[in-house]
Amino acid sequence: MKLSEIRNEYTIKSLDFNDVSFDPFNQFRVWLDEAIDAEVPEVNAMCLSTLGLNGFPNARIVLLKEMDHGFVFFTNYKSEKGQEIEANPKASMTFFWPELERQVRILGLIEKVSEKESDEYFLSRPRGSQIGAWTSPQSATIADRNELNSRLEEMEKRFSSEPLTRPDFWGGYRLLPFKIEFWQGRPSRLHDRICYEKHSDGSWKISRLAP
Question: Kind and range of the H or E element at 74?
């Protein structure tokens, strides 16, 4: 089958002003809970897009780990995305839940979470993931898999005799949104799009966008 012939008709749900909360965070929680209930695989996976140091957009899939007044994820601060965020703390996040024919797009500014938040999350991770954070020089060029395995053995030996704490080069970021769009697939590609935009006083303007 040709790519141009692949089509899906979206018919599950609709989205209107009467269906949404005045608060986009509440609306996101509703959709996230419904995606969890629907057993969507990797339900907290999102495409994080940053601006590369070469001026080009750069995207990858990461996992949402917390939502409060922003959207929180964790990574190596020295990684490619960490360097890009340091240089230009602006990013977008995109969630796609095909089982519910839904997409959420989020645009905002990024800040580091507190060291306390990073410590608490790091210590909640499985031990293997904790050692993995110490092991991988994320985004750096390595010779082969053996180099990584050697570093892993070194870290496992090191932390067999000393406390396993969070490395200072690893921690969390919080995206503070100023625009959030909820997309619901509809028949004939006439999809529903409800957009929230944040005003300077902290309130949110809600509008419908053409598909």
Answer: strand 71-76
3-class secondary structure, 26: helix
pLDDT in tens, 184-195: 999 999 999 999
Query: What are the catalytic residues?
Result: 189
CA atoms of 210 and 129, how far apart (whole Å): 43
No. of H helices and E strands in the chain?
5, 9
Q: Is residue 1 pLDDT above 90, yes or no? A: no
Average pLDDT over residues 134-141: 95
C-beta of residue 197 within 8 angstroms of C-beta of residue 177: no
Task: Using alpha carbons, select from 81, 99, 52, 67 the residue that is nearest to residue 180.
Answer: 67
Look-up: residue for tokens 């080069």? 169
What residues contact 2, with CB distance under 8 A and at least 6 apart?
none
Tokens of 10: 């979206």
> CA–CA separation, 24 vs 7, rounded Å?
30
Helix/strand/coil (H, E, C) string of 142-184? CCCHHHHHHHHHHHHHHCCCCCCCCCCCEEEEEEEEEEEEEEE
Residue with more model confidence, 159 or 1 = 159
Would you say 182 and 173 are in contact if contact means Cβ atoms under 8 Å apart? no
